[in-house]
Amino acid sequence: MKTTFALSALLAGSAAAFAPAPMQKTTTSLNYDAVDELPGALAPIGLFDPLGFAEKADGPTLKRYREAELQHGRVGMLAAVGFLVGEKVEGSSFLFDASIKGPAITHLSQVPDGFWALLIIAIGALETRRAEVGWVSPADLAPDSPGTLREDYTPGNIGFDPLGLKPDTEEELLIMQTKELQNGRLAMLAAAGFMAQELTDGKGILEHLGL
């Protein structure tokens, strides 16, 4: 975002995810039946779950919840940055036609038609890759147990780490995973707030900030 900028950044990340890179399976002792020991559960609150989703979920279900939270958090981080950068460069030919202007939530409707084809292909490729790495093939599942994650799969880890930031120790990895979750949660709230504000008065976020 330019709304477009965040999506373009997502495309770039998606393409990079398919670059030849060693696939590293994570051996982890995370216990998805002990929710207060999971990444993102911080003292003194522990796992923040006011609606009791975790209490009603078994280990595999909670693992799927965590996978969904991570993916939405990552998109939220791209979106929050994209709102601000997109509005900052609007009116230039940085990405598309310089005529793309206005609040970030309107940018996507102004992009060239070809962008949609690229977007669909990139998202389809990324989701196919994630499904192959993290999910048990439907052919190997019973009809009443769809959507099962592999036992040796750590949510969010599809082997994409081009900068080599993944820690070597389990303790440091837990800290990094918690940081990613916390930033992703904040970013989802921020992106939702940006959209709500722009829908309310039709003004861009940077305009509100006087920037």
Low-confidence stretches: 1-28
The span between the termini is: 17 Å
Structural class: mainly alpha
Q: Rough shape?
A: globular
Order of helix and strand elements from N to C terminus? HHHHHH
Which architecture per CATH?
Answer: Orthogonal Bundle
Kindly report the name of the CATH homologous superfamily. Answer: Chlorophyll a/b binding protein domain
CATH topology tier name: Chlorophyll a-b binding protein
Helix content: 40-55%
How large is the count of helical segments? 6
CATH class: Mainly Alpha
Radius of gyration: 19 Å
Compute the number of structural domains: 1
Give the number of DSSP strands. 0
- Average of the residue pLDDT scores: 80
Q: Roughly what fraction of the amino acids lie in strands?
A: under 5%
Describe this structure as you would to a colleague.
With 211 residues, the protein is an all-alpha fold. The protein has a single domain, classed as Chlorophyll a-b binding protein. The chain is built from six helices and no strands. The N terminus is likely disordered. GO terms for molecular function: chlorophyll binding. Keywords: Chlorophyll, Chloroplast, Chromophore, Light-harvesting polypeptide, Photosynthesis, Plastid, Signal. One of its GO terms (biological process) is response to photooxidative stress. It is found in: Plastid, Chloroplast. It comes from Attheya septentrionalis.
